[in-house]
Design a protein that fits this description.
The protein is α+β, with helices and mostly antiparallel strands. It has five helices and six strands, in the order H-H-H-H-E-E-E-H-E-E-E. The chain has one domain. It has a three-stranded antiparallel β-sheet. A three-stranded antiparallel β-sheet has the order 4-5-6, covered by helices on one side. Strand 4 and strand 5 form a beta hairpin. Helix 1 crosses helix 4. It binds zinc ion. Zinc ion (ZN) binds next to strand 6. Zinc ion binds next to strand 6.
Length: 172
Amino acid sequence: MDIEQRYERDFITWLERIEKDLHISAQDLKSASWVREVFTTHGELPSARFAHLAFEHRANLTADAVASVTTAARLDTGRDVSLAPYLVPPDEHLPGGSIGVAESDVHACDPVGILVEVADAVQTFVADTYGVVWPVCPDHRSGVHPTRHGSDAVWWCNTGRHMSEFVHSLRR
Ligand SMILES: [Zn+2]
């Protein structure tokens, strides 16, 4: 086993321990470049210490995503979409803490995954609260759904099987 293989093995072992201790999916952790940076810098950080670091990262990314997606929703629909993320820090009952928006938990750890989950939550909120389909594909006038496409979060149109727009695009 060379040094890179050993590094990768230790990284995965560490992620699996975090998954077990904090109930954060190892797959979600592996998708986030900042998690690998933490491992490269600090090595196998104990789960309880990592919990606070992860909470802060994920809370900041979620707050950014909520601000961006709710602004787009408000401008597009003209409705009040003033949602704030709920942020429950890690404690003995919830070792990984809890993050979400509009009654939907956010599970992802990377910016793109978080943007997709937040977009989905805001879309559901707009539909449930106002009975409004948002957003719609400008070409086909039908609803679109958020998904990961390459390294971007996009609104995907199933009618035309194409990307409608980037989730982070702000309209004016
Ligand atoms: Zn379309």
